[in-house]
Amino acid sequence: MAKSKNKQKGGNVYDRIFKENAEYLFIPLIQKELKIDIKAYEAIPDRFTRTLERETDFLYRVLTLSEEKFILHLEFQTQDDSEMLFRMEEYHALIHRKYRLPVKHVVVYLGAKKVQMRSKLKKEEIFYGFEIISLHHLNTNELLSAQMPEVILLALLSDYEKEQAEIVLRNILHALKRVAGTPDRLEKYIQQLIILSRLRNLEQKTIKAIENMVIEYNIEEDYLYKMGMKKGAERERARTAQMKQELLLLAEAKAILEEERIRAKEEKERIAKEKAVAEQEKERIAKEKAVAEQEKERIAKEKAVAEQEKERIAKEKAVAEQEKERIAKEKAVAEQEKERIAKEKAVAEEGKLRVEQEKEQLSKEKVIVEQEKEQLSKEKVIAEQEKEQIKQKQTATIMSLLRLNLMSDEQIAEIVQEPLSYIRQIKAKMRKND
After folding, report:
1. Angle at the Cα of 305 from the Cα atoms of 303 and 310, rounded to 5 degrees
2. H helices of 73-182, where?
3. Dihedral angle at the C-alpha atoms of 180, 186, 191, 195, nearest 10 degrees?
């Protein structure tokens, strides 16, 4: 984020807010706006302190569903900066040199005015630029209806008319009260709201809206107290007690939902492990089958060698017969030759017997392969049965979430990773049964 000397302190305040919320807010926002299917990401705390004194706002090592790996570079910008493009070019060289991965650069523009800064280089400038996500163009109603406080805060910086600022502030405070969970968290997000309001010159209106809200806020430790804000102690205690009761109920519901989410996640991990085991078993059988094929080929070669040996012996036998006829007159020599031929025949018979034994061994190995194939088929049936049980458990989880009525169908579909139509089908069945 751009930090001039006279505004560095204020810029650091905004940096801290957006860095604190980046993991829960800007990664999903970037995934939605830039159409990137992120499978996994890892925060990379880093500071470049070489000849160029540069510090990035945020780095992530990303793995997409398509197994694409790259570094995501995220910067927050409060003002139009004509030098931003060239600063990003410097970052690109430093990041790419260190991590040896493709780098995607994103600048989140927080300013109220229309973006004028360049985001793309000419071909001769080598560096290929970055994406801009302008919070000023986001839909205010969508942000206000979110379930995450970090997202709701951005409604202050979104697209609405100046005349609607007070209404938007009141709606933001009501939404924060609805989803914050605890008084401490609510106080934290209100502090952030006050700081962010300075980006739109709405600090005084924000303070006024807070004064009129029924919230628990540690006002004595905040500088607003010095501006003369009155507490109304008795009235605030009653309202705070009511709010705490509401927050306790909300926390209990969230705990149940979180337990269901964890259970679903564990179930999904178990299925993935079983699938991996099945793939390993399949690979093992394929390797054994390949070994069997090699063994079969080896036996075939040995059989061919035996046939050649048999043919050679046959030829030698013919020669022996000719030799017998030729030495008919020399009976003693012929008898000796006959005995030699008989021995060669015995050797041939031994070779034939060995080939038969090897053929029998190959037949046994073939039976073993068939038995392993049958075992794999049985394991596949068991895997299908377990998959059906998992589907039933998942359906029960979805029904529990629907009965709790704490989330929309779309949110449930996202948690259990099933199509929205499937969630609505279960919902329709539940209504029919009721």
Report:
1. 90
2. 84-99, 140-144, 149-153, 165-179
3. 20
Helix, strand, coil percentages in the chain from 3-state DSSP, rounded to 5: 70, 10, 20
- Per-residue pLDDT for the chain (434 aa), expressed as one digit of tens each? 444 444 444 455 666 666 666 666 677 777 777 788 888 877 776 655 444 445 667 888 999 999 999 999 988 888 888 888 888 888 888 888 889 898 888 888 888 888 888 887 677 666 566 677 777 788 888 888 888 888 888 888 888 888 888 888 889 888 888 888 888 888 888 888 888 888 888 888 888 888 777 544 444 444 444 444 444 445 455 555 655 655 565 565 556 656 667 877 777 787 888 788 888 888 888 888 888 888 888 888 888 888 888 888 888 888 888 887 887 787 876 677 788 888 888 888 888 888 888 888 888 888 898 888 889 889 888 988 988 888 888 888 888 888 888 888 888 888 888 888 888 888 888 888 87
CA 239 – CA 233 distance, rounded (Å): 10
* Residue in 164, 190, 163, 162 with CA at minimum distance from that of residue 175: 190
Place of tokens 């049958």: 374
Taking the C-alpha atoms of residue 243 and residue 250, their distance in angstroms, rounded to an integer, is 10
CA atoms within 13 A on the CB side of 315: 6
Write out the two tokens for 125. 């400038």
Whole-number Å distance between alpha carbons of 223 and 230: 13
Categorise residue 35: left if φ over 0, alpha if ψ from -120 to 50, beta otherwise.
left
Q: Terminus-to-terminus CA distance in the chain, angstroms?
A: 56
Query: In the 8-state DSSP scheme, what is residue 162?
Result: G
CA 29/CA 131 separation, integer angstroms:
13
- Local structure of 46: helix, strand or coil: coil
Instruction: Quote the CA–CA distance of 232 and 212 in Å, as a whole number.
Output: 11
Q: Which residue has the tokens 């706006």?
A: 33
Extract the tokens encoding 138. Answer: 């986001």
Distances (CA, A) of 393 to 273, 296, 417: 17, 47, 14
